[in-house]
Design brief:
The chain has 196 residues and is mostly helical. Helix 6 packs antiparallel against helix 7.
């Protein structure tokens, strides 16, 4: 089952979403029948399948799975477990995709604070969630908050992952976008040129 799940994740990573979804659906069904709905492996399968659904634009299906997985993770592993926090972050992304912006923001802030406290400020998962929160601020017009948080995130990613890591490059683009929206065009251009 682990290999099946990893293969499905590989398919998703290279854009073979139909195959990934089918494999994740089969894996979830097997895990539910074998372990039950509150086993961590079943919950993880729900989370992985929800991520496939999100990529395919099936946001409501993803939300249904993620809400159930989040409830299960909290029950079984606790509020501060890494898997719980990852499911919470994924749910925030889906809420945002369907226009539930305030719920997404609140969940994203809660997740970022918990990851910062539990995993530490420079854990890769913390940095991803922190970058998501900065984007949430930007999308809601809180450009100053977004720029500050995105700059902090970029600095940490460059230090921890290296300046050429794809995640650091992505944060650089997002910070440049934020500067552009703020009218800080010279700074935005400088960042874009660094990437180019």
């Amino acid at each position: 089952l682990v290999c099946r799940s990893e293969l499905a994740e590989s398919y998703r990573a290279i854009g073979r979403n139909d195959e990934a979804t089918k494999l994740h659906e089969q894996t979830l069904d097997i895990r539910l029948n074998t372990f039950g709905s509150l086993h961590p492996d079943s919950l993880e399968s729900q989370n992985q399948l929800a991520n496939c659904y999100r990529v395919m634009g099936r946001y409501e299906d993803a939300i249904t799975l993620l809400e159930a997985a989040l409830f299960g993770f909290k029950e079984v592993l606790g509020q501060d477990h890494r898997f719980t926090l990852i499911a919470q972050n994924d749910l925030a992304l889906n809420y945002n995709s369907v226009g539930r912006f305030q719920e997404a923001l609140e969940l994203n802030e809660e997740t970022a604070n918990a990851m910062f406290r539990v995993l530490g400020p420079e854990h890769p998962s913390t940095l991803i969630v922190q970058g998501n929160l900065a984007e949430r601020y930007r999308s809601m017009g809180r450009l100053q908050d977004a720029a500050v948080l995105q700059a902090e995130t970029l600095s940490s990613k460059e230090r921890v992952l290296g300046p050429e890591h794809p995640s650091a490059l992505s944060s650089r683009v997002l910070l440049a976008n934020c500067f552009r929206e703020m009218g800080r065009l010279r700074e935005a251009t400088d960042l874009y040129e660094e990437i180019y």
